[in-house]
TrEMBL record:
Single GO molecular function: hydrolase activity
UniProt keyword annotation of Hydrolase present: yes
Keyword terms, alphabetized: Hydrolase
Source domain of life: Bacteria
Protein's recorded name: Hydrolase
Length: 233
């Protein structure tokens, strides 16, 4: 007799602490995504941040750590150390290219990142060198539906990261029409409507940009000031 997988209708229990009760939660709509299974782990949500305080206090499945400066191993080390979940780490592709990208990617793999992320300008020749050097997924950012996706995949790209602003869902839809099985990460915007639209277009995984620590702390400071006036004035 074949084994049956039991579908439980019970709610998922949740356990929280007192000091870590406040966390940055990704939108619930992201759970509608199919996810991408990498090394046995299913990733549906990535929080886009290099803020270690945010990285340490989020319920996202993984971290998308891409930043507008020259990638540095010490930054990669700090991100991996702070994160409780897998890290997708930027290793260049724009100003940083060629052999330096390959070296940074290899170092990132040694430090324990789940995948390396390359910016849109990266050449396919460098991607090929990376594919021959590292054994973790290579993620390349796509910013236009006119990019040569087939050439990217043939060079060794494992996952596409679509970041096209307001045009993101259209880019995803265009890619998915020609490549039905390629894993796609995409930015989902700030509200459930755009997230669902991007998922319906074919994104497997959604990147969420959280509010900054300063923005979150603003509400906390309002509460502190209110309580002070209430108790002392």
């Amino acid at each position: 007799m074949k084994n049956k997988i039991l579908q439980s209708s019970r709610p998922t229990p949740e356990v929280r602490g007192v000091l870590r009760n406040k966390i940055l939660e990704v939108p619930l709509s992201i759970k509608e995504a199919s996810g991408i299974r990498i090394f046995g782990k299913t990733i549906k949500s990535l929080v886009y941040s290099t803020d270690v305080a945010v990285i340490k206090n989020t319920n996202a499945d993984a971290i998308m750590a891409v930043y507008p400066f020259t990638p540095q191993p010490i930054i990669t080390q700090a991100l991996v150390t702070a994160a409780d979940v897998p890290v997708f780490c930027g290793v260049g592709g724009g100003l940083t290219s060629g052999k330096r990208v390959v070296n940074l990617a290899l170092d990132a793999e040694f430090k324990g990142v789940m995948a390396v992320v390359l910016n849109s300008p990266i050449t396919n020749e460098v991607v090929k060198q990376l594919k021959e050097t590292i054994d973790i997924p290579i993620v390349v950012t796509v910013v236009s539906q006119h990019e040569d996706i087939r050439a990217r995949l043939e060079s060794g790209v494992s996952i596409l990261n679509v970041s096209g602003g307001k045009n993101t869902s259209n880019i995803v839809k265009s890619i998915r029409k020609e490549f039905p099985n390629i894993p796609i990460i995409a930015t989902g915007g700030l509200d459930d409507d755009t997230i669902i639209k991007t998922i319906e277009a074919g994104a497997n995984c959604i990147t969420y940009t959280p509010p900054s620590s300063a923005y979150v702390f603003k509400d906390v400071m309002k509460k502190y000031r209110f309580n002070y006036r209430k108790n002392h004035l």
